[in-house]
Amino acid sequence: xxxxxxxxxxxxxxxxxxxxxxxxxxxxxxxxxxxxxxxxxxxxxxxxxxxxxxxxxxxxxxxxxxxxxxxxxxxxxxxxxxxxxxxxxxxxxxxxxxxxxxxxxxxxxxxxxxxxxxxxxxxxxxxxxxxxxxxxxxxxxxxxxxxxxxxxxxxxxxxxxxxxxxxxxxxxxxxxxxxxxxxxxxxxxxx
Length: 191
Known about the structure:
By secondary structure, this protein is of the alpha+beta class.
């Protein structure tokens, strides 16, 4: 009679060991995505060049003042877009004073780590959740191993907007966007 050995040795996973990467994660690391848009941002190829540590530190340090100026600027010039974004009167007043409302972030479209600068055209006010998805699903997998001085072409989410409006919200209110644009044009004509 044959008996089974109940004490077969099985290898245990090391504590803290990461599971193997999925095919989707491996593709993302190579800039290959099954989508062309994420959270309303179109994917765009750019040259990602990691500045030296001193430059990155200087840009991050200067960002505090730039963030405040950027928020004051969009508060003064883009109130209709802030309302379309879903901000309350109280939150818009915060923006006008140079403070991001709780749950929102000023995002560098091309991050400082990739050579991005603190220019208004490189910034957008957006909620934290879609902001984090841009980084974790698209950018981080491609640049995780890059060091100072490294450069390569990567795919990043891009928009020319300075205020984020959820794509689902845009679909639900397409006429509102048109009306806001017309109102802004008529104000410019009076100025």
